[in-house]
Queue: 2 jobs
Job 1
Amino acid sequence: MFTAVTAVSVIFFFFVLSFHRFWATCDLAGKNLVLVSLLWTYLGWLKRRTIEISRSWSSKKLLAADGLFKRLPLWRASPFEKWLFLLFYLSFLYLAASGFFFGLFIRRGLYGYPLLLHVTSGGIFASCLTVVVIIKARDYIEMPKPLVLDISLFDPRRLGISALRAQYASFWIFVVAGFLLIMSSLLPMMPFLRYSGQKLMFEIHRYAALVSVLAAAMFIDLECFLMEKGEAK
Amino acid sequence: MKSRKTSLAATFLAVALAAAIFYFLSAPGASQDVKKDEKENEIIHPWDGAKKTPVHLLQLRDENGQLIIPTESYPFPYSSRHTCEPCHNYDTISKGFHFNAPVSENDGRPGEPWFLTDPKTGTVLPLSYREWAGCIKPEEIGLTAWNMTILFGRNMPGGGTAEPTPEMEAPDPEARWNVSGKAEINCLACHNASPRQDHGEWAKQVARENLRWASTASSGIGQVGGMASRLHPTWNIYDGPNRDDQEWAVAPQVKYNPAEFDSRHRYYFEVTHKPHDSNCLACHSATPVGQALNESEPDIHRASGLQCADCHRNDLGHDMTRGYEGEAAEKGMKNLEGFTCRGCHLGEDAEGNRTVTPGRQGAPYPTHAGIPLVHFRRLSCTVCHSGPVLKEGFGRVRTSAANRLGIYGLASWATDEPVIFEPVYAENGRGKIAPHRLVWPSFWGRLAGDKLEHLKPEEVMAAAGDVLKSEEHIAGILMALSSASAEGEIPVLISGDHMFQLNVDGGLEGRPYVADKKAPWFWAVLMEGAVSPFVPDFDPDSLERDPEIEARIFNALTALSSSSGGRRPVFLVKSTVYRLTDGYLETVARPEDAGGLNGFYWSGEKSFEPLATEFDVGTVTAKAGTGKTLTEEQVSLVLQNLKRASENQGQAGDFVFVAGGWMFSLNQHGKLVAEKHRAAEPVMWPLAHDVRPAQQSLGWNGCSDCHSVDSGLFFSTLEGQGPLLTRKKEKRSSVEFMGASGIYKRFFGLTFLVRPILKIVLTFCGLTIAALFLFAGFQALGRISGLNDRR
């Protein structure tokens, strides 16, 4: 079940994010496309992009990517912040890699030294996430206007959905998923939960991990997108 | 013309063949076979729904189906096949788990094998007809159905091996089925509710080869006397009592108590549909070695009022529900999911899906508070709940079937061998750790390439000659001396720091004795705790010889002569030799080359030899107090003898002795060497009972019950156990049996020291994030509602 959900979610997110790129980069203004032709146009774009990326997969491009890597705001941060984010990213990377690899491909699940490292990384991740939320949450919040009951509430064009706001949302989704990951690790170690509670926590941990990975992917994709547009924070 | 004739003949033959086929197909025999098959599967009296056991007031029938009249002379024993069959289909029952081992198609999870034990040759060989890992098929070492029945029939409920088909009988011309009869399925072994049901009596009757009488005797329906084992092989039950011998070779016969029969010769069977636990436990008990009866705790299920058969159920086919995870899938019976620990208590099938209705018989739903889910995925329930608590190392346990428990009489039936250890935590074949019982096999074998042939103890004894008879030799001498001893005197052999004397079974028993270890061994007598020479000091040259001393010498020499094997015993003292000549005590002068010998000796052609050889005395002295039955020297000599005997028969192959986790063999220089071999691996089978109450489960006191740097569960060490006195010992820790890394488990145990810190960190992080999130949420809510702006 979890494997299927993971596969479907990843594929779905891939198409959502790529469609966002397609929508944002292709000039479709003024074109009155019906859904089917929009789909075909998107698929054609996706095919072209895939070929382009595969052909341009050279050392030069890698260097270019390296340039992008060097331009990351992380390197401009203070030493404390730099180490904080490095630990945060690395721990999350290991948690995601070990958790999903063992969860999806190893029948027994996570065990042995990878498990010990997973638990250790979990502690580091939780600590870093807490600090990140404290020092960065303010950058990813936009206070809503006072609510006025109006028919325009139901007009999606008036909701003001933008890449930036989607990134904000992904940040907070990541935080919530992180919180669930922390609690679903902590509570099974406490003498509170019964067998069914333990099972529930295990499921919460898995799905929260999936959500956090998807949220992170969305956040990074939008960060790159906004960097390209020069709108990144 | 010729071809036309051929064609006509062919047509005729074809018609004749067709007619013959039609005849055979329509013959009564064929239709009877079909009917017989139908009958086999027919439930003669299906259950009508009444939840009571019917009164079983039945006429007893013998193995020929004839009515038994209890008052007639020499009545036959009752036959369960013919007495019970009219209502309960015998053939259907005979396919049940307790009877189908030789022909079973689904052997299921490994169970306890039979152990062929022979202390003399140091053999402990796990046997099973079932395909269970580590077990040897009886036929592989030439054990026939007859051998298996006589060896292990004491714990068989009849049927199966004890009632073999003609095909199973064929390989053994020495089988005595004709004399003993066959042990039919002993329905009463399980279903008898009478307190007279006596498992010990069954075992004794089997040992006496009274197989067809065993059920009658053990159930208390009749008294059985006589021993089929002492009868001539041509005797059969129709010969009746043995008129030639009324004392020794007495034919088995039954005496029924006519008062227990009604006027229509009906006997009241006090039976129950659901067997009483005591009947199950007659063969399925397991008790830690050294545990006193008043320290013994019952299985928590029994303590709660459940019986074995409440969970281990069966229908007429007697295919017992064994209750392990995976049994349902193996048998294709979904309902069996409800009879596992997990099914009954958690309502889950083997895959962890909640497809079962839990709570049968009031089974409580366990809380398992604070136990992470991985424990339920990696461990069977029995790890924490069953068997003894692993405190300091592995414990030894004795079981009914292996150690002959529960058979009472003048002689002690219970044995120490085989040595069984528990709980050994190992993978159970389904990816889960489960507690197991373990036995290190030991046996002699012939290694031909990769193939290992196991040798029967008789083959080893035959080839070993006197090498394995040290105890026997010394016991023989002590036996002879005891017949020449005065009342209250016990002849002993003093050697090293041990004193050896005869035990009640005529065997040799050693006990510690404070003596000069370097002093030579000697024969003596023990009287009222004091040791003195067998013959007191005296001067043979004295004019007044003590007649009592000479009588003692005479008696001893006479007794030794009778067990001398053709050798002549003499008694040497000072310059005199006492010997028997034509039944009279004679003295002659000591030969000059006799040196300073004193005491009893065998008179050789040219010299005097001690009553026991240095090898025999050295061997028993070396083994005394160690619990071992073989020395390395003995093993080397037997391996040499086996090779020599084999070469004399023109057969090649290297001989080996497997014990304690090692395989011993002789290298090219004739030296005993040990190496690893898969045949030396221990045999293990999962244990399920006794189940402990929740408060005595592992984990009740927290994680450190198991997870610590010196955890008994992970780091207890088990030493290879075998009959050989050797320094070569196999040692394995628990984690090795689990297939895990010891370093990792210690490191993992260490993490529990810092786990409280992790919990604090996670709690702080979780609360902080939750607080921030709530704060932001409240802020947003205040903003949406406009309350913040009004402030």
Job 2
Amino acid sequence: MPDVLIAGVGASAFGVSRDASAPRDWVRRVAREALADAALDARDIDAVVVASESDFFSLQLAPGALLADEAGLVPAAVMRVEMGGGSGAAAVRAGFMHIASGLHRRVLVVGFEHAASHLAGDDMRMLYGLSFDADVEGMAGASAASLYALSMAEHMRVFGTTEAQLAAVSVKNHGNATANPLAHKPMTITAADVLASRAVSPPYKLLDCSLISDGAAALVLVAGDLPQERARPRVRISGSGCASDHVRLGDRSEPHRFRSKERSGAAAYAMAQIKEPRLEIDVAELYDAFTGAELQAIEALGLAPPGGAGPALAAGEFGRDSRLPVNLSGGLIGQGGPPGATGVMQIVTLTRLLQGRYWPELQPARVLRTALADAHGGVATVSITHVLEARDD
Amino acid sequence: MTESTPDAAPSVSIDLRLRYTHPLGELTPYFAGLERGVAMGTRCRSCRRTWFAPRLSCTCGAGAMDWVALSGRGTVVALTRSRTTLPGSGVTGEFEVALIRMEGTDNLCFGRLGAATPPLVRGSTVRLVRAQGDWAHPAQCAQYVSD
């Protein structure tokens, strides 16, 4: 199997688009940026993977072909990938598979979503409620917030996780976002601010929730035997995993536990030959749809024992200056979350971190070798995990 | 975004209405039960586990399931409150929702709770009723009230 290298990256700001630009503009720009970063031309690309969560959001069915055309990538092969909030991560995995299988040599992966400024908030909440089991639960009044909240309520009951520990995630991620010029919601806040924010779906309050954003991000993946830019460390995808769980929380024996993520993480770690993730991972971007989801992800991915993420994070682990920073970008809570772009942006962030060219205030002084990206659709119904490795050769 | 668009046209407002003819498939007995305030679950012929909300294939891997009528009573396991819109019904508001373990089942169901004094909490016993209203989807008929 050939190595799969990340040759170039590009990203828009995440936020609420107010300049009347459209997703085709964002995709065209980030694709050009990623190609320039890889020192490649559009004609070098032989396959394109496009991620977006919902045509209800974009009002563009079959966006893959249109956006590939917009980016000047005809006649490349095109595939559109959807996996809820994990759509971007699934597209990265599809791009990885394109090259690992030997089918293609240079692949552009691009994710986008027009999710913040296109539809009214109540319409977005209603549509998101249909992204779980639409007939059985969505039609009955389930929302993303309520399902995540029910999962977290069980986590709190089982482990004693506290609202103050949830607030610590919000403080960290909003704070990290203050040094990220592409972030949607940079904020310097305290745990008291989070605890005082209005209830959205208890235990979650407004500042526990991630942001639905507009935005796009792109990667160029290439086969490892192709000539590479050598001025910076090469970054390869050393592990890729994906696994699923029952869609309905009530069909899971432990609704507080992200078992799909345990499995996808284990698969990615096995491929990357990671045996002690807590010791071997240097930096991670995890899917913090809500503050508690970050804690659940940290535990599922073996970065803390079950029930141990909340106390550890509140004590400073996983912070900007810790041994294993989580969501230096600000994550979905601080940087924002255009679902199709989120998983791609995680890889953009980690590639820049591994190459020592992330935002100066957020770039750790020490050399980073191994990075972890994880996203999911549903309430961790389908998880997609990647391990990245920096190489100097 | 990354660049400004100086000559951009202003955004336009588009109001779309979509009408679906939406089949309920082999879950029809479940939804028909909800319309009558009756809990219809499924039971696996192989492992005998019982599911409400019903599953049409069991987690044990067996495919053969039978429909069973349940008591309609259950216990609240976890609950929260959230703003949402009931699709097609034009109803938007704050709803109290829960994971509920129904008597005789091996899973939990998601359900909308009715108002109660004192408020329902974890451990409260509830029963399924048909909620009053003109609902667009039979799932919206289901409400769990203090028993």
